[in-house]
Amino acid sequence: MVTPMPKFAANLSMLYQEHAFLDRFEAAAKDGFKAVEYLFPYAFDKQDIAARLKAHGLQQVLFNAPPGDWEAGERGLACLPGREEEFRAGMVKALDYAATLGCPRVHVMAGLLPAGATHESLYPTYIANLRWAAQAAAPHGIDVLIEPINTRDIPGFYLNRQDVAHAVLADVGEANLKVQMDLYHCQIVEGDLAMKIRKYLATGKVGHLQVAGVPQRHEPDLGEINHSYLFALLDELGYSDWIGCEYRPANAQPGGTSAGLGWLKAYL
Prior knowledge:
By secondary structure, the protein is α/β, with parallel strands linked by helices. It has helices at about 25-30, 45-55, 85-100, 120-135, 160-170, 185-190, 195-200, 225-235, 255-260, and strands spanning about 5-10, 35, 60-65, 105, 145, 175-180, 205-210, 240-245. The protein is globular.
């Protein structure tokens, strides 16, 4: 029997920084990637992105819904009362892009905890927005993802833990709402990665995985996590979907992304 093997998607927001964004698709394909993800596509025409995907034989596996004013420091709208109309308009735009790009997943960032607010006070807004987003995405066959993010990288981020994220899924109650399990964030906040992978993959509610080395967010073969062990565990558990390579190459010079891909060769 052939053992399933995880498939790796290049995160074009972090990798291949020496290239203009639209040229990163070709660079990723030349290095053997078959899929890509990134933070946001909205600065570019969706047809131009679709043309790059087609030209280089790439699948689009993930991007984020609009996060509010990113340049001003906003990191999502889903938990913010009073921003529901903007949240919904952003989700409609994301689904439009996803349809053109053939993308089956959209990540909805939770947002930052406003000064003076509590998690409990924002929870009804968060649940209602996620339910609306999941219901809007369902007719298109698109999953909506939520991601626990560590508060070292994004201080004050609303969602930080895997158990809380899965409790949110239960409270929303929509089948296409799933968790984006970034092992980098999970290691920083919680650790015990192998047991968490076993626990949460078994639920069928992990919609995407991402990796990076800890603590510096470089290549997965750098730092404190034994990724080869975890990839073997994913094989054992039958996970054969995409894993996003959302890391900053340790060598930031031109060509540094490609030079740092030695860890990936066995999986391509």
